[in-house]
Amino acid sequence: xxxxxxxxxxxxxxxxxxxxxxxxxxxxxxxxxxxxxxxxxxxxxxxxxxxxxxxxxxxxxxxxxx
Amino acid sequence: xxxxxxxxxxxxxxxxxxxxxxxxxxxxxxxxxxxxxxxxxxxxxxxxxxxxxxxxxxxxxxxxxxxxxxxxxxxxxxxxxxxxxxxxxxxxxxxxxxxxxxxxxxxxxxxxxxxxxxxxxxxxxxxxxxxxxxxxxxxxxxxxxxxxxxxxxxxxxxxxxxxxxxxxxxxxxxxxxxxxxxxxxxxxxxxxxxxxxxxxxxxxxxxxxxxxxxxxxxxxxxxxxxxxxxxxxxxxxxxxxxxxxxxxxxxxxxxxxx
Lengths: 66, 258
Hints:
The structure holds 2 protein chains of 2 kinds. Chain A is mainly beta. Chain A has a single domain, classed as Ubiquitin-like (UB roll) (Roll). Chain A has 1 helix and 5 strands; from the N terminus they run ββαβββ. Chain A has a 5-stranded mixed β-sheet with strand order 2-1-5-3-4, with no helix packed on it. Chain B is an alpha/beta fold. In chain B, the strands form 3 sheets. A 5-stranded parallel β-sheet of chain B has the order 5-4-3-10-9. The A-B interface holds A 5-7, 25-27, 31-35, 40, 42-43, 58-66 and B 21-25, 31, 44-50, 52, 54, 58-60, 70, 72-73, 75, 88-90, 92-94, 160-161, 208-210, 213.
């Protein structure tokens, strides 16, 4: 299925959880924030939240800034 | 309260009164060295999309989180809603309740939209955030932010990245008189004397990024800023002499030959 990840279309497995997605991306769950459509997904729910086709997912972290 | 030995707000205590940003350095290694030279304990960061191209290095690999406390900002936000969203995302990443709240009202000057800033402050305070709002050098606004529950107020010295220094020291003095919370000059510092002036006025701290990161030698400038903040603070505590128009001799006339 397709989702929109950080502004780009991405092919992911059906029924993928937020946690699995982060694993695939090689991202440490303690260093990111995840927004799915309009909601922020709390870290403790990464394992249980299953992504749906067409979801817009944003994965954010701390970057350089003033 | 302004005479304390440390910078205190939101139940936290810092020994350094210099807060530095992590943006605009030529590379992360230079940034790391500059942070060290600045003596800062609090460093600002932005919340942005992760780089999915893993060949690029991550900022967090260069910041020792045992040594530095991260202060996420809401840079680039133009409405209260946007700034609140970014603050919540920052809290998710960092597990910290602190936020450097920026709500910009004008692209060219990057001056804050104070109406939106105040609205965002109220929402975030209600949600338990420790809010550090970036605001104009306006004592009335500073008081409103304090009343809304801001942990500190951070008036600009001059536009962000301008390096113009403290354009209106009188307003900064008015702000120091109008609020009880710490006053941290945020933005406009171009060189060491600008930071010293802010501290001599009685400010509780200075926040800067471009002044250090954009210098020819950022590491040396970071050290200069650390010294300037310390020197300015000491001069404030020591109490300067009053300004007079005419000279007063330092040496007595007594004992001169006739």
